[in-house]
Amino acid sequence: MRAPRRTASLLLAAGAAALAAPTLVPAYSLLGGDLPVGHRGFVVFPSTFSDATANDNANPSASFPGASGAVLAVWKAAVEWGSWRHGPTGGGDPTQGALGGDPGNTPAVDNPLANFDYSFQGAGIPGLPGKTVAASSTTLGPGILAVTYPGTDWQILFDDPQWTWDDGPGGGIAGFDIQGVAVHELGHALGLGHSADSGATMFPAVLGNGVADRSIATDDGDGAKAIYGAADPAKPRITGLSGAAAPGATIAIAGVNFAPSGNEVWFTAGTGSPAPRIVGPLDSSGGGTSISVTIPGLAPVPVSGDLLVKVPGTTGSTLSNAWPVSIAPPPAPVLASLAPPTVPVAGVPTPTVTLSGASLGPVTSVSVGGLLVPSAILSSVSDAQIDFLLPPGLPLGPATVTATSPGGTSNALSIDVAACDPPVLLVPPLTASYGTLPAQTFTAPGRIVLLILSFSNLPSLLPGVVDLDLGNAFSEILLLPPQVASAAQGRADSVLYVPPGFTGSTVYFQSVSIPAGGLPPYDASNLAATLIFF
């Protein structure tokens, strides 16, 4: 519970003589309980604060990405009780040298606190149970600024009708500072009572407008250590993140003391619930200094909050410090060029197309003329380039090419799908007896296609007419009925029945393309082969 100084000063003065004890006696007091690791997540209800000054801070902070107003003020308050500096520097508040892990507010010193860290879970909607910070629509009592209802489903209420609240960020506060009062109330939530030290944040009366209480004093830190113990040297600690923070992307968490296996990564879920989004179990690498984690499909995005690592166990020493992270879809891909601009409808090997542009790394599929190329067969994927194989079934002519990622769909480019000249023959490399074997010949539309097969790959030559790579001088050759190449793709299809008795044999195929006039020489396709494996 917190009161303005004017209402509490007489009570403190009356008890001053009783506090005249040796300086080694701590000024802090304890409520007699602690907050289990699984009950440290909380949400803030910003809409319950009616004062215009309670949610007007829109100044961005890299240490508290995406947050503003009362949510930002309470988030800052929570990390002040954290076991280590919040983020790389602990910055983000103009009235403090650092946030988190530094009782006494010494800017140049990393002084860890207790085995305790809150798990900020963003903004919520009034009505959800437990582990919330909100403003009360009714007066809490004469002279009372805010009150904490402790327990595993703890709750903090600010008296909204009686007082004016301000979200900061600086020291020019109208009324009382949400952040400073929230630090005090969050101290109650973790198990601290009031302190007799007038310089402590847990002193029962606000000093001025409450801005000075944003930084906990040594006495406050000592009280937290009395409940949870000083931050264990073996406690996991995050020192940095790398990689694109987008749903489905993989980031690397750098730190120390991660477990070899069984690690969990706790994300701010952003769903209005105090429960974090947990991913795990995960192994670490580098002797417990790195964890790779795929960011879950958090919804809605963007989600800004803290990331923590939990190692196996139940005590506070198993949960790391909180590290800020903003999870948002990557920007939509941008296509600048493709190569080659013209590609045959089929080929051996299959034609490859290269896309160049920006934000291509997270691409999940490429569309060519409405046919999808899934991510599994994309190659050379980077932010600047993607290679992919031309999908089968495209019609001849221009085709629209786009790329899609979680950030959206790119602009469109055009590629020209051309007829095959010389012809291209596609047959499966393996077949079985009693089955069927399809053969596709791609050539100029309207041409007559002759499919030839042989068990010999010795050439058959008819100078000036046709050159074949099979048939042993036309002595071992079988000519199938002619087909006409379609107008849509320049494709002629044949289906062969595979009789028994040829297991282990290799059959060679080649197509001949005859133009409409019928005059030689005739173009021959590539030589294809099929093994009859049983």
Specify Rg, calculated over alpha carbons. 36 Å
Instruction: Identify the overall geometry.
Output: elongated
Q: Note poorly predicted spans.
A: 5-24
What portion of residues belong to β-strands? 25-35%
Number of helices: 4
| CATH fold-level topology of the largest domain | Collagenase (Catalytic Domain)
Helix content: under 10%
In the CATH hierarchy, the architecture of the largest domain is 3-Layer(aba) Sandwich
Q: In summary, what is this structure?
A:
With 534 residues, the protein is mainly beta. The strands form 10 sheets. Strands 28, 30, 33, 34, 36, 37 and 38 form a 7-stranded mixed beta sheet that branches. Strands 18, 20, 21, 24, 25 and 26 form a 6-stranded mixed beta sheet that branches. The longest helix has 12 residues, at 178-189.
Describe this protein's structure.
With 534 residues, the chain is mainly beta. It has 4 domains: 3-228, Collagenase (Catalytic Domain) (3-Layer(aba) Sandwich); 237-327, Immunoglobulins (Immunoglobulin-like), CATH 2.60.40; 334-418, Immunoglobulins (Immunoglobulin-like, Sandwich), CATH 2.60.40; 424-532, S-adenosyl-L-methionine-dependent methyltransferases (Single Sheet), CATH 2.20.130.20. It contains 4 helices and 38 strands. The strands form 10 sheets. Strands 28, 30, 33, 34, 36, 37 and 38 form a 7-stranded mixed beta sheet that branches. Strands 18, 20, 21, 24, 25 and 26 form a 6-stranded mixed beta sheet that branches. The protein is elongated. The model is unreliable at 5-24 (pLDDT under 50).
